[in-house]
Write a structure and sequence with these properties.
This protein has about 140 residues and is α+β, with helices and mostly antiparallel strands. It is built from four helices and five strands, in the order αβαβαβββα. The longest helix is centred in the middle third of the chain and has 12 residues.
């Protein structure tokens, strides 16, 4: 899993005392926004997914690798909240589970009283699956 050569491994984006501050966020954002390698792009055909469209995105691990490389593994976290899980029927009569979640990416510093966010971004997303996969609101996500 090679990353793009544009991202130097010259250290993480933190202040001289080892903390991530708002002053250093601009530098971090520039490094986080550098292009990922072409092997980081995930493409799926509609014929493979059963959806009426092709999809394009990034493999999750490449995003995690970039965040760890630029910020360090203790200076970011993802929190999520399940908005809904609905059960529907496919046109063939199979059960289909549709989940909607809100994810929040936080950037900050570890502290003695827990994680101290200095910046965050929230977004909504969803997924449909033939398998329910347990109760994600209890198993995968911490309540916001």
């Amino acid at each position: 899993m090679a990353e793009t050569g544009n991202l130097r491994r010259s250290g993480r984006v933190v202040s001289p005392n080892g903390t991530l501050t708002a002053k250093f966020l601009d530098k971090a954002y520039r490094r986080l926004a550098l292009p990922l390698s072409s092997e980081a792009i995930e493409r799926t055909k509609a014929s493979e997914t059963g959806r009426p469209y092709d999809t394009v995105g990034f493999f999750y691990q490449y995003i995690v690798n970039r965040l760890n490389e630029v910020l360090g593994p203790s200076r970011w976290r993802v929190r999520g909240k399940v908005i809904s899980i609905d059960e529907r029927k496919t046109s063939a009569g199979k059960c289909l589970f549709e989940a909607t979640v809100r994810l929040k990416l936080q950037v900050g510093n570890p502290g003695q009283r827990g994680f101290l966010p200095i910046a965050e971004r929230s977004s909504f997303g969803g997924y449909s699956s033939l398998a329910q996969g347990g109760r994600p609101e209890r198993r995968l996500y911490e309540r916001l």
